[in-house]
């Protein structure tokens, strides 16, 4: 019997071979693939090996399952088919552009601006194996709207997860949402009116800036130092603008890979108390970083903090399950906002996630994920060092690195040059609250930086 490593290697090889055949046109769009059983017999391997290969290709958008009929080569949408979509080169590199790039699957393009870990790092969670477990329990509830707070057993599991960060939160303080982004939307709908000032990290999480503009908010950035927000600027903004909210990332900050120090976290809380400020702490990368790092919500115990979490980076973005935790009265109000705007979140997805994270395998999965990230971060730093890049904060373990390359003072121009060579960057201006600031920095996904196509494209642009 083949061991797990051998099966994984064979599965990857099989997926790569089929991908080449599809890219070369040997397997045209709409072509039906042989059955899993036929592939397994022909290759002399187990059905699970073939299933894993097919799952890989499905995730990349190369093939698609059709119920009762098998697997077929997916129709590949060409740029000329997108009548209402201008060419990437013709689009301004703004928030919407980068978000669209994150959502597209382009096997022939090296996307160094990718926001997620590679699919193969996450596919071992095998979402398919949890379906039967979900439908066997409480099947009747799957045909109705769920609780306004979300699926109770998952909130109880999240209570334990937060306890691991020394955050004491009862299930009544936790509201489930369609990902961390919906959790942010609920907060904005509740707190923000047109003209209100909201403070954000600068640079910071670019989709948040788009949401704030839609809300009519006045966005003011707090510069990000290597150890967290600039306290002097934060205090000055609090005096000048009297904002209601400050959105920040304390751990694994996107895009700079910085962590807020304990000293700064304490100072932020002191200022929040003095100026009646609510802190919204986005911890979307929690499963990729050590538990021991300082979180403002741990120091504050959710009195002035709204903690937002997600599993998009550690399980699957497709499940669309996130959550927020805060004081009980506010949690009830935010659950009402959720009910009014979306009725409920998906109990099916919440049950699936609960089955995954309550399984002992999940801890092993996140440990392996962090180990892969440590290796990739080391390789990425080596690759950037060879290119004489300036890394804002070198670290041992981070999904992103914030770095500038010699000879390119404007990363927008660099991104425009590299895209013609099949390399996509996430230029620094996209992460600016105003979008107008010229930046030499780019956000790089460490999982792809060692790819030789990057250096080759860079040399071609020199």
Automatic annotation (TrEMBL):
GO molecular function, a single term: DNA binding
Xref: SUPFAM superfamilies: PLP-dependent transferases, Winged helix' DNA-binding domain
Protein's UniProt name: GntR family regulatory protein
Gene3D superfamilies according to UniProt: Aspartate Aminotransferase, domain 1, Type I PLP-dependent aspartate aminotransferase-like (Major domain), Winged helix-like DNA-binding domain superfamily/Winged helix DNA-binding domain
Keywords linked to the UniProt accession: DNA-binding, Pyridoxal phosphate, Transcription, Transcription regulation
Domain HTH gntR-type, residue spans: 8-76
Xref: CDD domains: AAT_like, WHTH_GntR
UniProt entry tagged with the keyword Cytoplasm: no
Signal sequence range: none
Annotated PANTHER family: HTH-TYPE TRANSCRIPTIONAL REGULATORY PROTEIN GABR, TRANSCRIPTIONAL REGULATORY PROTEIN
Species annotation: Pandoraea terrigena
Transcription found in the keyword field: yes
Family classification: In the C-terminal section; belongs to the class-I pyridoxal-phosphate-dependent aminotransferase family.
Classification via InterPro entries: Aminotransferase_I/II_large, HTH_trans_reg/aminotransferase, PyrdxlP-dep_Trfase, PyrdxlP-dep_Trfase_major, PyrdxlP-dep_Trfase_small, Tscrpt_reg_HTH_GntR, WH-like_DNA-bd_sf, WH_DNA-bd_sf
